[in-house]
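Hi Prof. W.,

I finally got the Probable M18 family aminopeptidase 2 prediction working! I wasn't sure whether to trim anything, so I left the full sequence exactly as given:
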Amino acid sequence: MSNTLNQGLIDFLQSSPTPFHATQSLAQHLEAGGYRQLDERDSWPVGVPGKYYVTRNGSSLIAVHIGRQHRLEDGLRLVGAHTDSPCLRIKPNPELVRQGFWQLGVEVYGGALLAPWFDRDLSLAGRVTYRAAGRVESQLIDFRAPLAVIPNLAIHLNREANQGWAINPQNELPAIVAQLLPGESRDFRDLLAEQLNREHGIIADTVLDFELSLYDTQKAAVVGLDQQFIAGARLDNLLSCYAGLQALLSADGEQSCVLVCTDHEEVGSCSACGADGPFLEQTLRRLLGDGEDFVRLMQRSLLVSADNAHGIHPNYADRHDGNHGPLLNAGPVIKINSNQRYATSSETAGFFRHLCLENEVPVQSFVTRSDLGCGSTIGPISASQLGVRTVDIGLPTFAMHSIRELAGSQDLAHLVKVLRAFYASLSLP
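And this is what came out:
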């Protein structure tokens, strides 16, 4: 099963260079699995068993399977993840011409590791809004081919490079896309109009705006002498989105199950389609009823917030608490923080650990060093929005927030197995 899941993840990552594309890919898998898309502008069925999904902003998705035996007393089984990853976003007026090179100015999205973006074969993808025949429309584009690069400065000109230096995003990250002839000029919006025509056969009168990201064209791969690792971009957190999707698609339909994949986690989740917005609560109230019954339902539910965890790095083992260093290929990690950077409680951790033991899935624990800060995820945000009990978990990875991250090739199967068991569980704590 591991090989099939790993290849499926690699294909999903390849088709999902941006949150827009990830949401589109999730929707396609759900459609193939019998899920029906709902439009937020229409009236919805309330409490009717079935498979539904809804998107917002084209970058967030919620799928709800109302079980055949749905009862308020049984609660909901929710799995949450996020579709966005740290990256370089193209500025609204990005064109720069310096020393005869046409470059694109970028803005850093989220807490990206910047150094790995140098000397990579980069492409461009995202959403373009345009006018055609008097109508304003939007379309996703993906150039796929390498068309940009951010070259490093040779060590001969920066003798301190290996001593560490602060990267200036404004000056050092504009990507080179072409070398211009004397007197030649290029227009970025014309380039996007050409791509719309080439990729979709759309003839745009005007490209009005865009949300575009650079991404590494190197495909994810299973690597290592014994193929024990998966290397790829956006493992944080498309790995969890894919695991949740696979678990949901195999749910037996008896219990009511929810998959939540929201945008903007890397920048705080505070948006109309982020976890700190109203999207999830509005969706659940419209599908499952409102008022006192909704509060009662939430109090009988449980959310598994799935986001990557920091595996113990052999070169930097001192960055971990000695008793809490998760290993790659040793199973999902329960993430705990007394200051509520993670929403895990002893009850929710105990239930998840029980699920792992019952299904012969190895399980680990993570607590950050007491003298280091702790990251967070959608778990505490969703818990505070809905009042739902939550456990924060994730698969151990290296190089989190790099352009290319590393995870264990056996761990995806572990996570899918325990999430399937969670969706099928007859009772919650």
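The CA atoms of residues 86 and 111 lie 6 Å apart. Does that look reasonable to you?

Thanks,
D.
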